[in-house]
Amino acid sequence: MAMEPDRKLLEILVCPVNKMPLSYDREHQELISKAAGLAYPIRDGVPIMRPDEARQLSDAERDFK
Prior knowledge:
Number of strands: 5
Shape: globular
CATH class: Mainly Beta
Organism: Rhizomicrobium palustre
Number of helices: 2
InterPro entries: Trm112-like (IPR005651)
Helix content: 10-25%
GO cellular component, one term: cytosol
Order of helices and strands: HEEEEEH
Pfam family, one: Trm112p
Protein name: UPF0434 protein FHS83_002158
Number of domains: 1
Radius of gyration: 11 Å
């Protein structure tokens, strides 16, 4: 089972690319920036906030998430 990130931390984190709020995708353990089209991974409860580690969202994911 994946380790959950701290809720307070999730409240203050923003996308490092555009400084916009992020949404938490518990199922995929990612922080989503729709505006930047990026999904930042969460590993062992730690958000990895490096754009070079983020994956690009598909058009469908941008519309859905």
